[in-house]
Amino acid sequence: MAGILVFVEQRDGEIRKASLQALGEAARQAAGPGWPVAAVLVGPGDAASLGTWGATTVYHAEGADFAQYSAEGYAAAVVAAAEKAQPTAIFFAGTAMGRDLAPRTASRLGVGGLADVTGLKLEGEGFVARRPVYSGKAFATVDAAGKRPQIISLRPNVFAANETGGTAEVVALTGLTPTIRAKVAEVIASGGGELDVAEADVVVSGGRGIKGPENFALIRELAKAVGGAVGASRAVVDAGWIEHSHQVGQTGKVVSPTLYVACGISGAIQHLAGMNSSKCIVAINKDPDAPIFKVADYGVVGDLFQVIPPMVEEIKKLG
Ligand SMILES: Cc1cc2nc3c(=O)[nH]c(=O)nc-3n(C[C@H](O)[C@H](O)[C@H](O)COP(=O)(O)OP(=O)(O)OC[C@H]3O[C@@H](n4cnc5c(N)ncnc54)[C@H](O)[C@@H]3O)c2cc1C
Predict the structure, then answer these.
(1) Rounded to an integer, what distance in angstroms lies between the CA atom of residue 299 and that of residue 254?
(2) 152: which strand partners?
(3) Within 10 Å of residue 142's Cβ, how many Cβ atoms?
(4) Cis peptide before 149 (omega within 30 of 0)
(5) What are the angstrom distances between the C-alpha of 310 and each of 201, 306, 314, 316?
(6) pTM higher than 0.70, yes or no?
(7) Using one digit for the tens of pLDDT, what is the confidence trace for 232-242?
(8) Arithmetic mean of pLDDT over the chain
(9) Residue 275 C-alpha to ligand 1 middle, in angstroms?
(10) For 260-310, what is each residue's pLDDT tens digit?
């Protein structure tokens, strides 16, 4: 059999946007050869609703073993779905969970994995993928040594979700008894329910140029005006000005929003690695030679304390 299976991530039963994007790309890729697109949902969530986003079959594993994420339990469910669907490729969203689960699934199936993919091309019976390397300085074209299914994680916000309005058959995955050695006891949300930078369409980030933690109020004000999430450079996270969950970059989160606004951020290669696939980049920096301007679509050379307040006022006027 051929086809694509997509692991669909949920948080407290709510389907994550990055997974719908993976499903959208699966449906687009499968349309050419006429392959079926299946999804596997593990834990609570509306499995049937995934038909609207391109899946024709949804394998659903529910129950106490799957109420909280565990790599062992979730990998067992994905492998069980793969045994039924016999796909050519299994797609994951490249979120923290996807990046944990995809290699484990690959190892369970004895196949290779392609991570953080930003472009896909179907060649014959499998995919050739494009992925950024050297912190986004270059792109590599990669295959998975001919083994199937190919395990592929897709960078969030690069591929578009597609509401097809279709319907899906839901198949319950029953009789699974995974051995789960490490269990999640409790999940404590960080960031006071703030929008996650990895999911947001707009990200406004602050760096060392904001001078102190109290000035994140200005960044938050701009983020609020444009309906975005608050991001940060590592320098300010290391300084304890904001939590690590906001960090964008090589050792933080990789984001690809429609709009990324960098305020007082120099544009070190490790920061660029996390945001240079954003669709539109705006930089505000008082140093005209700051490297961030090399990747920016629009640049404001100036003191952010002078630039941001009138910007917020003007945006507010737009309603
Ligand atoms: C292994 C490794 C991993 C790393 N991972 C990451 C990562 O994930 N994310 C990350 O961000 N960094 C990462 N770094 C750190 C990175 O190299 C930089 O040190 C960091 O990004 C710098 O942060 P910054 O731009 O906020 O600070 P700086 O480099 O100090 O830049 C501050 C900028 O603010 C500007 N500025 C100052 N005052 C104003 C003002 N009033 N108005 C406007 N502009 C102003 C300055 O001109 C300057 O360009 C990593 C480093 C290593 C070695």
Answers:
(1) 21
(2) 91, 114
(3) 18
(4) yes
(5) 23, 8, 6, 10
(6) yes
(7) 999 999 999 99
(8) 94
(9) 13
(10) 999 999 999 999 999 998 999 999 999 999 999 999 999 999 999 999 999
Angstrom distance (rounded) from CA 261 to CA 285: 11
To test the pocket of ligand 1, the residue of 285, 300, 303 to mutate (highest count of ligand atoms within 8 Å of its CB) is 285
Q: pLDDT tens digit string along 6-35?
A: 999 999 999 999 999 999 999 999 999 999
| Position 202, amino acid | V
Q: Which two tokens stand for residue 70?
A: 């565990």
Q: What is the DSSP letter of 22?
A: H
With a 6 Å cutoff on the Cβ, whether 209 touches ligand 1 is yes
Helical segments of the chain, H only = 17-31, 71-85, 96-109, 216-225, 234-238, 269-275, 292-295, 304-317
Phi, psi of 5 (to 5 degrees): -110, 135
State how far the Cα of 228 lies from the Cα of 202, in Å rounded to an integer: 4
Whether the CB-CB separation of 14 and 85 falls below 8 Å is answered with no
38-45: average pLDDT: 97
Ligand 1 center–CA 238 separation, angstroms: 11
